[in-house]
Write a structure and sequence with these properties.
The chain has about 350 residues and is of the alpha/beta class. The chain contains twelve helices and 15 strands. Helix 9 links the parallel strand 9 and strand 10. Helix 3 runs parallel beside helix 4. The protein is elongated, with a radius of gyration of 23 Å. The structure holds ligand AOF and zinc ion. The site of zinc ion (ZN) has 5 residues, from loops.
């Protein structure tokens, strides 16, 4: 896929300082999480005589690219970027998009050397960014912390390759795998801390998918309220038989909702359509029937199974446990804590 010239250089060639600077670039790139989609998270630090003189990141869609923000930061701080080394998590772009090319910005700023973590699979860039810099006499090295960068921008990379979103599932169950207590009116049974974590996860997604049953039973708002958010994900309701109540919150609260009449057998086509809309990550939030359709179709990439320490009096069994999830091609990646709940994270991705 990559030309020989852009193959990662063996890590032995990198100094400790190189690694430290690229780690910092990855760290500042995180600031844009939840705000840059469909663009990738990108970070850049400029180093002069072994010292970081400026930092930049792609902060939000339509905002400056990381390199341009770093150059601007250097100027603001009264440092000259002339002769500096740029550590960039993504190959600089060489096209006019929402911003002018970063390759030109780096050249004009007098950057002498560029160290790049990951090439840009965007067909308009793809090695050309590196080429343009090299043609201008800038020394370029690629592949430093490439795997880390790939993980950080995995939604973007996946979408560039497959043109469809990554599918993340969240399901909360009681001690016996029940998703709902039918002896009570619909309500949540997980802790406040867990809810905060769910809202954080929603923030990292471009869309939230539920089946119409969830709307009828819970009338959820499916928006982000518990953590600061400048953007709300698109709510997507799968409703093959047109049963969504007109007064449902998702239809009346002024936010964006898409009601789809797709049959569940159409899930790959549905994801392709979302991909066409530049949606790079969706979260399926239920209920169990909808989730099972995604699992059966082999379309789940990540699964957060939230285990609440409660017992429902009139349980509604989910029929989904760790075995169901692993049978769908995922493996247990890590166990994390959300508030009072333990969460098993299964994944088929890195
Ligand atoms: C960079 N630095 O910080 C980012 C890059 O729509 P635009 O103009 O913002 O361009 C988006 C494309 O530019 C995106 O698809 C990806 O190829 C690249 N993103 N490139 O040099 C950055 N965010
Ligand atoms: Zn750029």
């Amino acid at each position: 896929m990559l030309s020989r010239r852009h193959q990662p250089v063996p890590s032995v060639e990198w100094s400790e300082a190189d690694v430290r600077f690229m780690r910092r670039a990855l760290e500042v790139a995180e600031i844009g999480r939840g705000r840059v989609s469909p663009n990738p998270l990108v970070g850049c630090v400029l180093v002069q005589d072994g010292v970081i003189i400026a930092e930049g990141w792609h902060d939000h869609l339509g905002g400056l690219h990381a390199e341009q923000m770093a150059i601007h930061d250097a100027e603001q701080k009264g440092h000259s970027p002339n002769g500096s080394t740029a550590y960039i998590t993504l190959e600089p772009c060489n096209h006019f998009g929402r911003t002018p090319p970063c390759t030109q910005a780096l050249m004009w700023a007098g950057v002498r050397k560029a160290i790049v973590a990951h090439y840009d699979p965007n067909p308009t860039v793809r090695g050309k960014g590196v080429q343009v810099l090299e043609d201008a006499g800038i020394e370029v090295k690629t592949g430093l912390l490439e795997a880390e960068a790939a993980h950080q921008m995995r939604e973007f990379l996946y979408w560039c390759e497959h043109r469809r979103p990554i599918v993340t599932v969240k399901l909360a169950v009681d001690k016996h795998g029940s998703v709902d207590d039918r002896s009570q009116s619909a309500g949540r049974f997980t802790s406040e801390g867990c809810l905060d974590a769910v809202h954080q996860l929603r923030k990292e997604c471009d869309g939230i998918i539920v089946g119409v049953e969830t709307i009828i039973r819970d009338d959820p708002s499916l928006n982000i309220r518990r953590v600061p958010a400048e953007r709300q994900p698109l709510r997507i309701v799968i409703d093959p038989n047109g049963r969504i109540p007109k007064e449902a919150q998702v239809l009346t609260d002024g936010g964006e909702t898409m009601v789809l009449s797709d049959d569940f057998s159409n899930l790959p086509a549905l994801l392709n359509r979302l991909g066409d809309m530049e949606i790079q990550r969706v979260m399926v939030e239920g209920g169990p029937v909808t989730i099972m359709h995604f699992l059966d179709a082999g379309l789940v990439d990540e699964f957060y199974l939230v285990q609440a320490d409660v017992e429902h009096q009139t349980p509604y069994p989910s029929g989904i446990d760790s075995q169901t999830i692993t049978a769908a091609g995922l493996s247990l990646n890590q166990i994390i804590t959300w508030g009072d709940e333990s969460v098993q994270l299964f994944s088929r991705l890195d």
